Amino acid sequence: xxxxxxxxxxxxxxxxxxxxxxxxxxxxxxxxxxxxxxxxxxxxxxxxxxxxxxxxxxxxxxxxxxxxxxxxxxxxxxxxxxxxxxxxxxxxxxxxxxxxxxxxxxxxxxxxxxxxxxxxxxxxxxxxxxxxxxxxxxxxxxxxxxxxxxxxxxxxxxxxxxxxxxxxxxxxxxxx
Length: 176
Known about the structure:
The protein has four helices and three strands, in the order βββαααα. By secondary structure, it is mostly helical. It has a three-stranded antiparallel beta sheet with strand order 1-2-3, with no helix packed on it.
């Protein structure tokens, strides 16, 4: 095998076709120096053994009630009534439309996006879906039905903006 001193030599992988990941070796080019004139490549053997990650530290210092580190984000129960759902969806329609106009530019698609997001939101609330993640997914699905050809938006960016506004409203309502 001819040795090369070029630092732009390609990365060579030896043994990746092997059925065992522990047999895979990566060969990295290494400069030829006076102390090691023979080897132009350094071999690093990949280990198949994976070490588990340490569990994250508990909030509140070891209290048994703190085992659930991820808390569900849910809208307030008062928003799940028919009147609450209607009020919140109208708030979202107005607020999202204004946010889209301010953040990007006023365009006809903003009306369709805010109307669709508000309708989707109201359907979730009247169906007693309080989980913000479920609301987001429903909203994305409904917003994907719109055409974004002449718009700065997409279904995911619009749904994310709507949910961000909803969570900001939730935070402000908890602080009252």
